[in-house]
Amino acid sequence: MDHNKIDDVKETSQTCDTSFEVGGDPFTFCKIQGIIEESENFDHSNSDEYAICFDVNCNCNENLMDSNYSNSNEKCSNISKYFLEVILKSSGDNSYSIANNLILDSCGKYTCDINQFVLDGNQFFPNIYKVGILENIYARNSDRCLEFSLCDVRDGCEECSEDEKADTSYGFKLSQIISNLGDLSQITKDLTVNEFGNIEFTQKAVIFSKYNRKHIIFSFKLKNVGSNTASKILFKDVLPGGVCIYDNAIFINGKYVNKDNLSMDGRRIIIKFDDIGADEEIDLIMVGSMQDGYESINCGVLTYVSGFKETYGVKVMSVVQVLSNIKALKLKGCN
């Protein structure tokens, strides 16, 4: 591997210090950036988020609908309660009819009262904890808003959602979102109310040949155009068939991704990002190979905490799930 230093890089640009190889071919990060810059720019529209008020009460042991925890006799009085909304951004107009998808599998280590779920302003009774049944919420042509309360009454149940292996290419499971939030008591400290982060999430994809091999570059930009820091940011991309990303060619702002923040399982890539302040942005670049004969699409998904609103004196955490623009991957380029 060639370990020559990368020269002539602007001081304001964070870049990798050394060259690297992907699929046996030598590259430099500057070369990758040049290929991306030569590709065309794409328009992307991002709709404003909205939030609606809801009644917040909690009674953890009533009507848990065959819950594995229905024998729990804890009440939510005198214990920590948290109120969340998950806003699914509409996926916009696309010829593939792809929808932003949330799988309702479980609430992870927390207990949720199914009698206190509100979907788009209407009471909603999900099949959470129903063995063998998974419910999905889709946002295609309009935003969706799921509101619910959590109670911190169980310990060590992070693995309770692993009974269901279902996944989606264009969204997350509720248990994944809640697990990524971690300790909710820490997030709710020093709240900034009614100020929200808003990440514009766009991608470019470039296919090119080198040494008779076909390579692909995915370039994702995360730009916070909101007025508040976006935190607990989780990225996911389920790659199309025939695409392989090299684990030594994933960069965040020009630096190799911290492997502690990266999970690669087959075609699924999940990355945890640092917080993005207002008017700040993050560039994610992934380089890999593409087999001949494949024509497919790619779309990434993000979830993040945008901020807190106050409803009737109750502070509600707003979590946003948003899809990137959709890229068609074709052998002669990307349209």
Word description of this protein:
It is a single chain. The protein is globular, with a radius of gyration of 21 Å. The N terminus is likely disordered. The strands form five sheets. Strands 3, 5, 6, 7, 9, 11, 14, 17, 18, 21 and 22 form an eleven-stranded mixed β-sheet that branches. It has a five-stranded antiparallel β-sheet with strand order 12-13-19-15-16, with helices on one face. The protein has a three-stranded mixed β-sheet with strand order 8-4-10. It contains three helices and 24 strands. The chain is mainly beta and 335 residues long. Strand 12 and strand 13 form a beta hairpin.
Entry summary:
With 335 residues, this protein is mostly beta strands. It contains three helices and 24 strands.
How are the SSEs ordered, and which strands pair?
Elements: E1 20-22, E2 25-27, H1 29-38, E3 81-88, E4 100-104, E5 111-112, E6 117-119, E7 122-124, E8 135-139, E9 144-151, E10 171-173, H2 174-181, H3 184-187, E11 195-196, E12 199-210, E13 213-224, E14 231-238, E15 243-252, E16 255-256, E17 262-265, E18 268-273, E19 281-290, E20 296-298, E21 301-311, E22 314-323, E23 327-330, E24 333-334
Parallel strand pairs: 3-22, 4-10
Antiparallel strand pairs: 1-2, 3-9, 4-8, 5-9, 6-7, 6-9, 11-21, 12-13, 13-19, 14-18, 14-21, 15-16, 15-19, 17-18, 20-23, 21-22, 23-24
